[in-house]
Amino acid sequence: MTSLHTMMPTLRLSVLDQSVARAGRPQDESIRHTLALAERCEALGYHRFWLSEHHSLPTIVGSAPEVLMAAVAARTSRIRIGSAGVMLPHYSPFKVAEQFRVLDALAPGRIDLGVGRAPGSDQRTARLLNPHLRSAEDFPQQVLELHAWVSGQGLPEGHAGHGIQALPMGATAPQLWMLGSSGYGAQLAAYHGMPYAFAHFISEGEGCSQALDLYRATFRPGLLPEPCATVCVWALAADTEEEAWRLFASRERARIDRNAGRFGPLLPPEEALRPYGGSERFHSEELRRKALVGSAAQVRDKLTALAAELDVGELVIITWTWDPAAQRRSYELLAREFGLG
């Protein structure tokens, strides 16, 4: 894989945080924990810090990545900051371009603009976000418009936006990324020559290698001269393997409950434990079989093997724990194992 900058001799690590809600703790506290985590991850040597967008979901309270990105920009000086992502069908591409041009003015050359077409919510909430919600068929056109405005290239004559500029302009511009968890995003990223990030943590890896193969096979030079892909994975390291699996119970319960349409804040490990039956037990076994969980050395080896299997030079790591200190410790352990900084 070729990076956006130069080929790295070792695996590059980045972070995705979703401001997860935690049972028994105020939701606004989760936002402040995200900011503190961004500062810590920059000090540890992580390359990017990405933020997701979800709406009216009791498990995840990160609803406005562009606002959080501004706060992270004010507290950091090196780490790249990005959206993972802006759910573009909700919004005007012109307004998104303006927001990210402002962000680039706050943190020149450090802004990643990741976009996706998923609603990040249910359809009722999506309609409240935008009563005139654009259809999925409009998404490729929205991406083209967004790129034109965010890069300052302008739109052609005959387009309603011809001659309109997204300000402020500067010496740098946000880097546009395509996000996805299926072949659709891979194909669209390849067609426009965009960097591509696959959401491995959503599908537990299902379809990941196929999407990356499709992206690389159909890539046409565009925003980039050659393919650039990364994979967002869920991983958790602790001081001991036993402790890591204890902490994993919170995420395991959230995943199994989600399959049944039950959403709520992340539970402490001890409260998350309950007997699983039937299909729940099967899903629990599958989660644990695929999980990138263990001691720092074990997770390092799992991540390294996965990156080699998928032929990527960067992994974006997302970690859920009920205790923010355990989440922070996981990132600290991995930074040490991979020699970041």
Automatic annotation (TrEMBL):
GO terms for molecular function: oxidoreductase activity, acting on paired donors, with incorporation or reduction of molecular oxygen. It comes from Ramlibacter tataouinensis (strain ATCC BAA-407 / DSM 14655 / LMG 21543 / TTB310). To bacterial alkanal monooxygenase alpha and beta chains. Pfam families: Bac_luciferase. SUPFAM superfamilies: Bacterial luciferase-like. Gene3D superfamilies: Luciferase-like domain. GO terms for cellular component: cytosol. Residues 14-307 form the Luciferase-like domain. InterPro entries: Bact_Lucif_Oxidored, CmoO-like, Luciferase-like_dom, Luciferase-like_sf. This is Luciferase-like monooxygenase.
